[in-house]
Design brief:
By secondary structure, this protein is mainly alpha-helical. It has a single domain, classed as ABC transporter involved in vitamin B12 uptake, BtuC (Orthogonal Bundle), CATH 1.10.3470. It contains 14 helices and no strands.
């Protein structure tokens, strides 16, 4: 038991919680932006995979994890262009298009990875954590400290989104597009422009979450590596009622459930590996059962908007 409470074990445990939680938090915040505007993105699983592969490939080819995160962000934006055109502009069924994006993302990333990396799989280079244009600054310490710059940059992005959604006219317009788009239209705003911005930001954050997963959490890419993480992000988004703080707290439950495996093994608790793989999803499902009645989704979620229609 004393080994379990040692500084090294606790450090690894906390670091594991962070790297497991952050991809889910980032993706959930992206889904929150989309849902608050009235756009349901069931393709988040596929978009995360595209962001994960784009981020991993960019980090390998440029020898920069920072550029890899940017590559994942751009990959998510490109992946969401299909959602933008078919859902937002043409008003097609958001559920059908979202599931199609998931299937496309899963298949496309598997094929591209097998073509580009299967013969010589690579891990993220150890010197890739230096900030571009500041590469002369030495990076000293274990991986968790080398990675901390990206972690804090993502935290700042999340704080900025929380502020913009709750305290700015842009946030008010975004929520209006999801709650009562006709009111936004009557006030002189554009539902189409507002939702288009939200969909692109949704893709950017979901792709960033996928890049975080491949670059920081695992250090590599494997086909289908999200393993349902995108669908968990949708559940967490609906439970959190548009509040970034609730997204973080709910995602932490998932992170703890994933990270608890190593401490339990250290104290000799013998639990089958399948139980550990199932535990995070069980925790989220229990949370859903307990708090589903209090969850609130925007009234116009999933409904296309036509100006002047009643």
């Amino acid at each position: 038991m004393s080994d379990l409470l040692s500084a090294s074990v606790l450090t690894v445990f906390i670091a594991s919680i962070i790297v497991q939680t952050m991809p889910l938090v980032i993706a959930s915040v992206g889904e929150t932006i989309g849902e608050q505007s009235g756009v349901l993105n069931l393709g988040i699983e596929g978009v995360m995979l595209i962001g994960a592969l784009a981020g991993y490939a960019t980090a390998i080819w440029t020898d920069s994890a920072w550029l890899g995160m940017l590559g994942g962000l751009l990959g998510g934006v490109v992946a969401n262009l299909l959602m933008l055109v078919l859902n937002t502009w043409l008003g097609l069924n958001q559920i059908v298009v979202g599931l199609a994006v998931t299937l496309i993302g899963e298949g496309l990333t598997s094929v591209l990875y097998l073509q580009a990396f299967s013969k010589s799989p690579q891990s993220i280079p150890p010197n890739s954590w230096k900030i571009p244009l500041l590469s002369e600054i030495p990076v000293i310490g274990p991986a968790i400290f080398r990675q901390s710059g990206i972690f804090w940059a993502c935290i700042l992005l999340l704080i900025m989104v929380a502020f913009l959604l709750s305290r700015t006219n842009w946030g008010l317009a975004t929520r209006s597009a999801g709650q009562k788009p006709s009111s936004l239209d009557a006030a002189g705003g554009s539902v189409m422009v507002t939702r288009s911005q939200a969909v692109l930001l949704n893709g950017a954050f979901v792709g960033l979450g996928g890049a975080y997963l491949s670059i920081l959490t695992t250090g590599t890419f494997t086909p289908f590596m999200t393993n349902g993480l995108g669908f968990l992000a949708i559940v967490i988004t609906m439970l959190s009622r548009g509040k970034v703080g609730w997204i973080v707290l709910t995602s932490l439950l998932y992170g703890i459930a994933v990270a608890v495996k190593n401490p339990l093994q250290l104290i000799g608790v013998s639990i089958p590996a399948d139980v550990f793989q199932m535990l995070p999803f069980v925790v989220v499902m229990i949370t859903l059962i307990l708090f589903a009645r209090s969850s609130v989704v925007p009234p116009a979620l999933g409904a296309p908007y036509t100006r002047g229609a009643r």
